[in-house]
User: What shape does this take?
Amino acid sequence: MLGLTNQNYYEFHNPVDLADSHSEAVSIVLGYKKDTFIDDLASLSNDANLDYIFVTSLENISDTKDRVMLKGEVVRYNRRANDIYRYEILSYAEDIDLHIKAINEEMVQTIPHSVYGIEKNRKYLVVGVVLVLVFALSQSFGGFGQFLGGDSDGKKGPEPPPGN
Assistant: This one.
C-alpha cells in the first residue's frame, strides 16, 4: 500500500525484510491485541529504529465472487508522539485508487518533512549553493584581485608616483 504512495520523499522499509530482521516483534504486532497494540508498535519502532510504522489490514466481505468489497483499515504509528492514526476502508476494489490517494494525503504527506526529505540534507544543499556562488563570482570578477593590491602571480601592484 505504501509503495503506491511513495514519492521518493521517505525511506520505506520492505515489510518482508522487517519481518526477517525483527520477526518476533512483527508477529506480535500482526497478532493485533487491541489492548496492547500501541505498546507493541512502540516496541517494534524502537527495536527497528523506525519513526513511523504503517499497518494495513484488508478483507473481502463480498457475498459474491463477481465483485470484491474491501473492508479494513490503515494504521500509522508515530513514535515521537506515541499515537496512532487510523484510516478506515470500505470500498469496492475498483475504487481503491480513491483510498490510496486519500491515504497519501492524510497519512503520508502529513509526516513532517523535517523527518525526511530535503530538510535532512539542508546543510549540504546550502554548502553546494555557496560553492556555486563562489565559483560564479570568481569567474565574473577574476581580474578584480589586481585592484585590491595584488595581481595573479602574488606580486604587489604598481606603486603610486612619488611626491604626493
